[in-house]
Amino acid sequence: MFSTNGLIPSGSDDMHKDCERIIFTEQQLKSRIKEVAEQVDQLYKGKRPLVVGILKGSIIFYADFIRHLTAPVELDFMVVSSYGSGTVSSGKLKIKKDLDNDVKGRDVIIVEDIIDSGFTLANLKALLLERGASSVVIVTLLNKQERREYDIKSDFNCFDIGDEFVIGYGLDYDEQYRSLPYIAVLKASVYSGE
Length: 194
Ligand code: PRP
Fold this sequence. Notes:
This protein is of the alpha/beta class and 194 residues long. The chain is built from 5 helices and 9 strands; from the N terminus they run αβαβαβββαββββα. The chain has a 6-stranded mixed sheet with strand order 4-3-2-5-6-7, with helices on both faces. A 3-stranded antiparallel sheet has the order 1-9-8. The radius of gyration is 17 Å and the shape is globular. The two termini are 32 Å apart. Residues 84-90 have low confidence and may be disordered. The structure holds 1-O-pyrophosphono-5-O-phosphono-alpha-D-ribofuranose. 1-O-pyrophosphono-5-O-phosphono-alpha-D-ribofuranose binds next to β3, β5 and α4.
């Protein structure tokens, strides 16, 4: 296991070298996700929720989260985009891959890696309710509260973070770093081109 002590592993690996500092270790992620998933699970006694992962950023969180649920769940995924290749959120939400399931009458759990401006989740929640979902609960790994522009909040959030560019555990910069087992702040030199 990498970085249980919060230190960036030494060596010549480029992914690790581009990290300014680790903010959540593998161990911290594991224990907080278990705690939150057990709280969410309480809501679904006797129900069969549809757990919707928003790809790609949520993939690792999603896989860890669902394994703590005891309710019988069905899995589904959407691919949407709100970011370009840079670090600023902009533009209109695009649905690149829609759900396989009809959400009418279903209890839906949306699983997201991060809520930033809130654009993605505000639009997605509205869309799923419009399609007839009975309930929509939002579960996020990270919340950047100070960046919020849309009136939406996560029902269950694992960690609050400041306005820093974070990578790892599913989160990317320009499609890189998603496989890092921890969450780290990306060195500014990587995206400023210095
Ligand atoms: C990220 C993240 C959320 C969204 C959050 O997705 O996964 O979906 O941005 O930002 P917002 O609150 O300002 O809408 P991104 O488009 O980077 O795609 P990815 O999940 O494939 O990394």
